[in-house]
User: Fold these one by one.
Assistant:
Number 1:
Amino acid sequence: MNPHQRSEPMRTLLYLPSSPLQRFGLVLAFAFLATLASKGMAVLPGYAVDDYGVSNLDQSLTFYLSQGRYTQALLQWAATELDMRVPTFYWPSTVLILLALPLAVAFGATRIGDERTPVAWQCVGAALICAHPYFSEYFTFRQALFNASVYVVLMAVHLYYAYRIDVKQPLLCSANRSPLILSSAAMAFALGGHQLVFPMTLAFVAMSLIVSWRDRQRPWMPNVSDLKQLAPLIIGVACYLILHVVIKQILGNAGDPRGQLLDVSQIHERIGQVSALIRQILWSDEPLLSGAAKVLLIVPAGALLIAAGFRAPFSTLWVFVVTIVLIAMSLAPVALSGTWWPVPRALSACGFVIGTTAVALLILAGNGWHVRMAAACFLGSSLLMVLNSAAMLQEQHRLNRWDMNKAQLITYDAVRRFGEDALEKLHFVNGNWTHASRLRTTDGDLNVSALSVPWARPALLMEASGVRAPSTWTQVDPATTECARRRAWPAEDAMYEAADVIYVCL
């Protein structure tokens, strides 16, 4: 038998599925494996500093509303009314998002290309999105997964109904009316969960449209009828912005300062910060993402951009321009905020931009050996992302053990020396963000010791000992204590009593 004949069934299975359903199933399986391998450890109990903070005291609705997260505020209100703490039911939220994320990604990825598109390219793009560590950081914040699971489901609902719009029919005809309303409503509520849903969703739709134009006589000019699939996205954003403006007028400057826009005087400094952030995202080694993973992305992407430019110059130009716009949109919430806080989860839309751009470039560059090599590099990058994401969650469990053990020993020491009511008088002074054995994945407020965060300490002590210590909310100025002249705990003189207050020097 001819070798080419022997390989034909495998080629059909891997590259050209016989039906859209089979294609979707293959990409979904690949996306689910990447999601489970990178984020599956989140089903085990774990605490970020925010999880400690809201374990016994609900976050205020003003906090979420000031950030434009009215859907999350609604979810928090519902949980409060049901007398439930969000971290306590992290399990169903985690399971839901572990299923919903690959479902949404597979649905979006399979719309980039057509029946001629090798399914392997779509699988690679889905793996890059699902394994990316920036989105994985959300899984370390168990209380955030309730909201995240809802907006990911809403994003999937939006994509499903947006692609049911018949672009050959008038947008407001009876056949398109229901998909338009449902997809627009889903987008408006998804944005109320997180504003980054907009660039995440736009990445799928935009790359799908660009790739579909490659065979046209005038690929540089968009077909107006095709843009009807963007209509529910635009309507959803418009509804969200109107509601957001109204809420901001009511709240004023109350709530989280990160919800405020940067001042004019900050613009010059912010330009430098954003430039450095872009270099970090694209090339530099990070605690959450190795430089090797980025090299395996950027170098083959550059080669594909050149190769695709020869085969489909106008479509390739569209991909390049839209990618830049999408990256700008992904950075906008951080760049425009009055508080500079570029934590990885705030940049999570970048993974969606990277994955969808990779699919588009692989399709436009053809099926030659150079494209296969690029796809292999992309796959290698996604495997490194899986390892980085898994390491992040594993190190969180190590940190939780260290924090719990130290808090338990401090509790025992305080009770032994000052009596059973000692915890009511306990105040911490200083507190390092790490332990003697440092973690590799500490970044921003990710994997930092709860002992260094005043509002997280009460819940940490309660989890470690079962005893409440409400007074430890107090932020103590080290200059008003003797800790500068004393050694750090567990030294004998690190814990002392003065004016009916027990100080612990950390």
Number 2:
Amino acid sequence: MPNTNFDRDTLRELADEGNEMALDRLADLADAAGDLGELSELLDEGSPRAGVLLTRRAVASGDLRELQRISDAGFEGAGHELDRLLKAPAAPNLAMSNSELEGDPHLAPPSGHPAHHS
């Protein structure tokens, strides 16, 4: 079985010569190492794989600004994810007090069921 543990320098040389698979492998290595700076550089070099990996991280953390940055760098998938997140219904504010609930007729408990006071 062939050795598939290539060194970074060789991958970088191949990527610099236009080899997209080497660029993708560098993105995977950067992701595994948690090196967001290198992933961002690879995205700027045109690596779609870096775009996928950065988008996945931004979605997981809910980072809308990062999704916009990735989209602006040319990775359309980030723009789609940003749109999806922005179109999602907003979560209700679960920290509302009972007095706030009682003051809003749309949120007050049904008649005959007093609000719970803490």
Number 3:
Amino acid sequence: MDPWLTSTGAYDAAWFQYPCNHHLEQPLLDRLKNSNKSLYVYLSHEHQDHYDLEFISKISDFNPNFILPQFYTKAFESIAQFYPADNITYLADRQTLARADFSATIFIEESGLNRDSAILLQAQGCSFLNLNDCKIFDRLNDLKNIKVDVFTAQFSGATWHPICYKYNVDEYRSISASKRLRKFKNVARAIDVLQPAIFIPSAGPCCFLDNDLFYLNFDDRGIFPTSEEFLDWLNENTKLSDTHNVHLLPGDRLTLPDGNIEITEQPFGYRHRSKQEYLLAYERKIISSRQSLFTRFTATNPIIIFQQLRHELQLKCQEIGIITVEDRYLYFGLNELPNLFWKVNLQQQTVSETQEIGELDFYSIVAPAWQVEKVLNREMHWEDFCLSFRSQLQRVPDTYSIIWNLFLFRNPDELAWAVASLKTLDRKNNTCISVVCSTTAKEWKINRYCPHQGADLVNAQIEDSRYLICPRHGWKFDLENGGRLTPNGNFSVNVKQLLAVDRTRS
């Protein structure tokens, strides 16, 4: 499942496996070479820390069979190009692949902003539910009747906000701590609903070995907590006595159904070194591959890249269409060319050159020319570019913009579908539901789906007798203020009416 083993990292050597697992690659290849069993590979989505094409190329001699999610938009093109169709099984949401010795069921999360999947594997009388970083927390009730022996889920962040955005120290720490806690609560609730015998924290965090990003490894309230930190929080803040929390390191082995654990030695002394000592040893090991990567781009001409960028931004404008709901302009610049921007106006469909940001309200991004060059050459997807964390962004006022996130995250040929998905969400929100506060019995009529990425709010929880919490990403809507997003009220679940309070419901 999502094998990420190569030593070159992901997102142009911005992210690396933590703890290091490079030492497992060759033993795994040797084991596959000597195996007489059929090889099945599940890939959840195309992020480079899950979709390791370098490693996938090394298993081609073993005739792998791929289990892939059937997204609406095209995906996994390299697999489809280099492997015969008989070796690839695409599964739609909730669809099952049954084989003599196992079955696999896929769960898909897809919106204009994101596409991901989770898998339920059942074999030899045991079940393994791997949510990975697929945030289907709004669908947990659909899974609670399934006996889950082992449950894994991502507990850390994987986004450029607030890391790449301009904030003062206090603002940054507050936003990071809030996101971190929301993630912890989501996974804790999933454990509580699913009641697995064993929980294993997984799919995070990465570590950052680039000199410009190295500081992120030591942000003790940031969105990249370690497995140890999350398990400590679980033990201190929850009472999940029916679930055994297990911390596995790369190469450790858990045997089912008896639950025995075999511990293995870790590279660079992970178990007995401080985090800083460990990461410095890790960084020294892979420094040559990082240097070779960046040497390639020393010849990048920022002026040429800036001019080429205009065509890409114009193409994106055409594909996304005229947008009236976002009246802020986007300013796009390069690190190497200070005070020079392309100003993108979606309402007028224009991209014009400017030397200054002329509005009080705006959205801006500045990025290194060599990475923009890779995107323009289609060596890198726009979303991978964003996840490298090498850009600096600012938004004034500090309110979330679905449109500018779509614009920056999606390749031009994906934008039309992404905008159409937002319109589909608008139509779905003609459906309303009633939500009731369990402590006050107060009842509100609201849109059924979250305006962010369409999470179903049927099972959303209410905090402090007024705030509805989206189960997928933790967005907080104030039901006593029309259902508006708090603290930034540019989105709403649109409270249609406050229904009469029934004091018999408590």
